[in-house]
């Protein structure tokens, strides 16, 4: 450790990485224009014949692991040993910067430098001595348009860069997250990345125009000797280094690009100035990026620049400029020393040492002054007497370095080469200048802070404006909705008002009508009263007539009785008729009871109607039967005609048969005669034979006899032949006749059979006919009966009607009589007063008519009045309801307005409250309140203690467990709080 205390000059390490040709380049037919000269070193490349030398050159096929091992790994131990470290990637967009720095976190083969470094740091810690305590915190921010935006707290949008007491620049107010395991670091990175994504629309474009800075701050304390070391590691993914012209940017994009280029050109300028070596002023303050990287460039940091390039011919010029940048950066020298906080004892020791050194140097200065005086006095000092400057280790440069150590022991100091380069200025002037510059820087810082505050305030105000806008929009919407509602309500109100108006008008009309009617009613009432008085008088006379009426009533009851008797008789008859027709007449019981008369009468009517329907049925049937009778008659005549034909035929056949029998008899006779003649001839023949026998003597006789015989024989033969012929003919004739007879007999038989059948049919038809005629006769008789009954009924009805008519007449007569009597009574009354009875009568009738009309009108009016009365409360109710509705709507409107106001106030209050809370939170986050330290123990694998719960263990408990192991990593600022 001791030798590390001496600051070492260390040039910035520059490694160059070429990515493979990408798809678009391959498609565009770009050529691979970079050559890697063969050799073991792998540290040079040539492009277009120009060779560049770097600390390391990675070919496109170089793995992430190789890049990490050879370019970044050594930094881990440096950081843990208390040095500052920086790795940043420089190159045009899509040259592989993010791939190199970040890669795919969590993928063992594709993860880049940051995740590997994080894992390595923790692994180192776990493998270190036990008495070491670590505090690790991370910050993540991006620089865009020269504004620093905290990626772990989106509300911090414009952070400023300040210098700490050791004049080391740092980002003031940046969120520092204490971490105790790689997972927590990755979580922070993820959070930062997601915040970065949320803030912008096009991430690719944004990432190519902004620098992202990930800072790991490692503090360690040796618990044995209280020695404290701290190392800061900046991991920077720069914006694309391409020229603006290439991107074809315009407008704001161009401004943006220029701004980015500004910070990158500031970086280039810083590098150039540092590379120059003669420049006294390094323009760190030109941009925030260079300000942050001040320590990393020419300061107290081990810095590695990874320049990322594309090997494609298309990107040749950019690749070349990137390589030039790397070349320049390679010449920059940093002065590196350990950031150590010394203990009091060490300070004391160092003080003694320095005191000694000062005394020695003072003696030497005195000696030198003596020598100088001698020289100035014109003396020549011999070489032996001259003070040996080479011998002495305390050369001015060494002294200066010592002084640097001193300052570094307090804390790292901006070891600008300008300070180390000897200047011709007097020390006083320099001091003055230094102080002035100091002051100016301080002012600058203050201004920065102010700007930061302002911009944060602006941001807040912007947020507020947005919120307000939203609120306004919502209230406007509400207002519009309310306005709509109000319009609707007003419309409703209008319509309701109109309705009310109409109703009122109707009411008025009604009231007017009512008044008129009531007046009329009054008038009529008066008339009525006078009339009723008259009526009263009449009433008394009426009472007298009432008794007469009673008498008449008695009479009428008597009449009624008579009528009922008559009706019962009639009904009885009807019942009988019913009995004869329907056989159900038994049901009809004639009641003498006058009360039941009506009922019975209706029953009788029913019977009559039934009978009517039956009669119609019967007539229908009669018609049918008549039709069928005609049919059968027709059939009978047809059959008769057939029968007569048959008879004729039979008689013909019989005649023929007779003639045939006669001819047969003739033939028989003929036969007999012929047989007789044959017998006669045979007799003659026998006689002749006997004669022959007798007269055999005489020859002559013989001869004569022979001749005769011959003649006779001849005659006989002839006769026989004829006879035979005749017999044969007769026989044929007989056979013929027989045949004919047989035929005729057959036909006769047939005919007789048919005749018989016809006869039977005829009989049947006849019997049917008779039957039908019988039936018809019956029906006709029943019909006649019915007809009779109907006629009777009609007669009955007529008589009933007549009776009723007479009854009516009687009633009329009675009424007339009554009226006459009343009139008589009245006239008799009137006659007493004055003689004008006719006029009086007329008047009375007129009055009566009037009264009738009036009563009618009165009734109508009363009805109208009642109707109106009924309607009036309804209308009033409606009116009241509409009024109420209007009122309710108005109140609702008022309420809605008030509610809107209230809501608005509430929103305002809520917004204020939230803002206050956010402000408080921010203050709390930023404020000096100590962070909760998360102790992690060295010598244990992080997996055991990683994770929120394990980390939040009570440190005392942890300490009890490992009392011997006094080695721990404290992540956080305040150990005591653990
Ligand atoms: P930059 O950050 O410089 O704009 P990126 O790191 O995003 O570029 O790289 C652009 C693309 O090229 C990414 O898809 C990345 O995976 C790929 N890439 C970059 N370098 C390499 C490499 N060495 N090997 C393979 N792919 C790479
Ligand atoms: Mg990138």
From TrEMBL:
Name the protein family. Answer: Belongs to the TRAFAC class myosin-kinesin ATPase superfamily. Kinesin family.
Region entry Disordered, spans: 764-783
Task: Report whether Coiled coil shows up as a keyword of the record.
Answer: yes
| Subunit relationships | Oligomer composed of two heavy chains and two light chains.
Q: Name one GO cellular component term.
A: axon cytoplasm
Kinesin motor domain residues are 11-332
| Coiled coil stretches, renumbered | 337-371, 423-541, 844-899
> By what name is this protein known?
Kinesin-like protein
- Composition bias of kind Basic and acidic residues appears in 764-775
Q: Where in the cell is it found?
A: Cytoplasm, Cytoskeleton
GO MF term list: ATP binding; microtubule binding; microtubule motor activity
- UniProt keywords, alphabetically: ATP-binding, Coiled coil, Cytoplasm, Cytoskeleton, Microtubule, Motor protein, Nucleotide-binding
Keyword Ribosomal protein in record: no
| Binding site residues for ATP | 91-98
